[in-house]
Amino acid sequence: MRVLKWLLLVSFLAVLAPAILVHGQETKKAGTIDELARMYDSSSCKACHLKIYETWEKSIHSQSLVGTPRTLATLKNFITDALMGEWKYSGVKKVEDIKVEHMATCFSCHLPQIKNATDKVAQDLAKAILAGDKDTLNKVSINCVVCHNNKAITHKWVDGEIQPKTVYGALVAGVHPGKKNPGIKKSPVMDQAILCGQCHGLGPNFEFHQPTQCATLYGSYLHAYIPSGGNKNCQECHMADIKIGRNLAVKDHLIPAYRDKAQAAKAVELVVETRSYQFLPKAGDWVPTAELTVKMFNKAGHRIPDG
Ligand code: HEC
Ligand code: HEC
Ligand code: HEC
Ligand code: HEC
Ligand code: HEC
Known about the structure:
Layout: H1 2-23, H2 33-39, H3 50-58, H4 70-86, H5 100-110, H6 119-131, H7 134-137, H8 144-150, H9 156-159, E1 166-169, E2 174-175, E3 183-186, H10 193-200, H11 217-225, H12 234-238, E4 241-243, E5 249-251, H13 261-265, E6 268-279, E7 287-298
Parallel strand pairs: 1-3
Antiparallel strand pairs: 2-3, 4-5, 6-7
C-alpha cells in the first residue's frame, strides 16, 4: 500500500512538473522572433496606461536594437568585424554559427529577453540586423514587461524570483485589472537608481566570454555623483510627473536625455565673470583689456557625455 502511495505521488509530480516548468519564464524558450515578442507583449498595457504608453513609444527604449540609429550600424559591425572577424576564437564564421551567448554580448542590455529565446532567434535577429530590417527589430525592445517584470528584482536570494503574469510597480501590491497580468507586486528597486544601473553599466562586463564595455554611466553615478553629495536618483531627474487630469499625474516614460532640448538645458550651469581694465605695458601705451572667467558646473547626476 505504501509503495502504491509513493508511486501515485511520483506519477502526480511527473504530471505536475512540466506544467510548472512551462509556466516559469526561465524555462520556456521562444523559437521565433514573433514568439519572443508575444512572450513579452506590452500592447495590452496601452488600453489603460495610454499616456505612459505614448511617451514610451517615443523613447529610445522602445527601439533598443535600432537606437539613434548608431546602434544598428554598430551592431552590424559587431557581427561582421568582431564575431566573424577579429574575434578568431568566437566560433562564428557565418550567421548559422551564432548562438544566444554571442548576441548576449550586446543584448544582455539592449534586449535582455534574449535569455528566453533559442539560438535560432539569435540568428534571425542577427539576419535582421545585417539586412537593416528595422520593422522586424522593433518587434522586440525594452518594453513595459522588461522593466515592470524582468528587471524588477535585483537581489533574488533576498527578495525571491520574479513571478510570471505579474506587474511590479513602485507603490502598490494586490490585484491588477490587466487580465494578462492579474498580479501586482511592489518592486524593491522600481524607484531606485539600481533599476537603471542594471543596464546603464559599471564598466567592462567581465561576465562575458569576451568582456566589452558599452554603457558606464551607473559607475559614474555611484562613484562620483553620490560621494560628492548628489542626492537624486535617475528617476527624479529623468522621469518627471506629467499631468493627465486635475489630480492625476503619471511618470514621463520618454526618459529624455541630450536629444531633448529641455533636458539638455539642465545639464550644465555656466557662470561667466567679466572684468575690464586698461593695461600699461610702457609709458603712454594704454591697452584696453578684458578678462573673462568661465566656470562650468555639471548638474547631471553623472559624467557628461557618458554612455
Ligand atoms: C533593460 C536595460 C535598460 C534599463 C533597465 C534601463 N535602460 Fe535606459 N537605455 C538602455 C539602452 C540599451 C539604451 C540605448 C538604446 C540605444 O540608443 O540604442 C538606453 C537609453 C537611455 C537613455 C537615452 C535616451 C535618449 O533619448 O537618448 C536614457 C536617458 C536612459 N536610457 C535612462 C534610463 C533610466 C533613467 C532608467 C531607469 C528608470 C533606464 N534607462 C533603464 C537600456 C536600459
Ligand atoms: C551593460 C549593458 C550594455 C551592453 C552589454 C551593451 N550596451 Fe550598448 N548601450 C547600453 C546603454 C544603457 C546605452 C545608452 C547609453 C547612452 O545613451 O548614453 C547604450 C548605447 C549604445 C550605443 C549608442 C547609441 C547612441 O547613438 O547614443 C551603441 C552604438 C551601442 N550601445 C551598441 C552596443 C553594441 C554593439 C554592444 C555589443 C557589442 C553593446 N552596445 C553592448 C547598454 C549596453
Ligand atoms: C526603462 C524602464 C521602464 C519601462 C520600459 C517602462 N517603465 Fe513604467 N516605470 C518605470 C519606473 C522606474 C517607474 C517608477 C518611477 C518612480 O516612481 O520614481 C515606472 C512607473 C510606472 C507606473 C506607475 C507610476 C505612474 O506613472 O503612474 C506605471 C503604471 C507604469 N510605469 C507603466 C508602464 C507601462 C504601461 C509601460 C510600457 C508602455 C512602462 N511602464 C514602461 C520604468 C519603466
Ligand atoms: C484593464 C486595465 C489595465 C491594463 C490592461 C493594465 N493595467 Fe496596469 N494598472 C491598472 C490600474 C487601474 C492600476 C492601479 C492599481 C491600483 O492602484 O491598485 C494599475 C497599476 C499598474 C502598475 C503599478 C503602479 C504603482 O503605482 O505601483 C504598474 C507598474 C502597471 N499597472 C503596469 C502595467 C503593465 C506593464 C501593463 C501591461 C502588461 C498593464 N499595467 C496593463 C490598469 C491596467
Ligand atoms: C541630477 C539629475 C540627474 C541624475 C541624478 C541622473 N541624470 Fe542622467 N542626465 C541628466 C541630464 C541633465 C542629462 C542631459 C545631459 C546631456 O545633455 O548630455 C542626462 C543625460 C543622461 C544620459 C545620456 C548620456 C549622455 O551622454 O548625455 C543617460 C543615458 C542618462 N542620463 C541616464 C541616467 C541614469 C541611468 C541615471 C541614474 C543612474 C541618471 N541618468 C541620473 C540628469 C541626471
